[in-house]
Amino acid sequence: METLDVNEHRFASVISDINKELQTKGYLSEDEAVGSSMAVEMTCPVPKAKVQLRQLMSEMRAQNYDVIIFATYRTACKLRFLQKQTHLHQIDIWNMIEAVRENGLHVLEPGAELEADRLEHVLTTAFSQLNKRVPLTQAVPVDRCVALTTNWLMSAYDRESTGHIRAFAVKVALAHLSSGKLVDKLRYMFTLISDTTGHLIRAKFDEYLRDLLMLPAAVYEGTSFRYTEEASRTFFDTKPVTVNDFLSVMTAIPGRQCLMWLPALNRMAHVENVVHPVQCEACRRSSIAGFRYKCRRCCNYNLCQDCFWRGRVSGNHSNDHDMKEHTSFRSGSKQIGRSIKKSLDCVPSSKSHGDSQLPHFPDKPQKTLDMSFIVPPTPASVLLNGPKDHSSTHSLEIASLPQSPQTRGLRKRAVSGGTESSHIDDEHRLIARYAARLAADENKAVSTPRVAG
Ligand SMILES: [Zn+2]
Ligand SMILES: [Zn+2]
């Protein structure tokens, strides 16, 4: 495992600086900071893992995401930063699942716990495999990636410092922090929380939601996106919930308030390399990278994400105007895609959602017997591990801007859907078969007691 290259003399001052910053930003109580920095000066007992973690959090703070006035974007920015620092964003969801399976996590009993070194093994597999797929010059530092990810996940899910983490939590976190389409991640999750007839198990969904919401909590956004039993109960009606019901609710726009950061995080990943040849009216930069926000009232008034997220305006434009979020640029032609609506109260105003973009999957789990000939262990389409960006051609409508920086969250409403190519349909069919096989394996594992793992 890589160690921090810090000699003992510099060690104390590094810790002290990090503590000071964490303390200033409210991440660390005065007692904690004083206690640990004094201990460092005396005996240097602070574990390397803790130092790395604090450094990571300190670097995140340095990005100044906290000035973003929308909790949804703020949280997505922080999680995206962590994805990149740990290089999890380079590992495709399907490769991540393979790493989980290679280390036997798929045959563990429900509720099984792992020791930190078992988590390290999973991550070592995932990052080592990644290095085999990318050119040598793009290889990631496996030890460092493993250490950072392990430390962060342990801090997020092992709040009592028992040295153990639930296998299920590992799957939830790694799946959602890897790259790939949200719908694929959710389909994998559904295989873990449904029964052999393809119906959602409510208690497992509850556990899933709880673990999923540990992610925003781990970047200090737990107050904006909090788990509650009541919220969990209202996700689905009483009827049996199929994979399509699940996907429909989980990708709905507006989605449930506690999950609004999730599609935003996935959109953010897809829009990162998009450049709009349009000037930002607030900061005057000549082109806009990432999200672009266009006023629905002012003629041809565009803002870059940096300005919009921070509430910057110019001229006659005001924060009260409706805005539309764009993830692509098309000159002269009408922008295609869906729109969302944002509001102060974060509560969905209608039940519309992005169904038109969702593929439809069989409600019942597919039989796996005849599939071994058809489905490779890893779908061919993921072997290259490239980002699966098919979703950058929509835009989002935003209305009723928040009145104050204290405002937290967004309300979104789907208006129309984008088009999917037949290539994507093929990919979805392939993934559907693959997910069905995973589901069968998971169910087998659950129904077979005392499987060694
Ligand atoms: Zn700007
Ligand atoms: Zn305007």
From TrEMBL:
Pfam families: EF-hand_2, EF-hand_3, ZZ. Residues 275-331 form the ZZ-type domain. It comes from the Eukaryota. InterPro entries: EF-hand-dom_pair, EF-hand_dom_typ1, EF-hand_dom_typ2, KCMF1/Dystrophin, Znf_ZZ, Znf_ZZ_sf. GO terms for cellular component: plasma membrane; synapse. Keywords: Metal-binding, Zinc, Zinc-finger. One of its GO terms (biological process) is synaptic signaling. SMART domains: ZnF_ZZ. This is ZZ-type domain-containing protein. The lineage of its organism: Eukaryota, Metazoa, Spiralia, Lophotrochozoa, Mollusca.
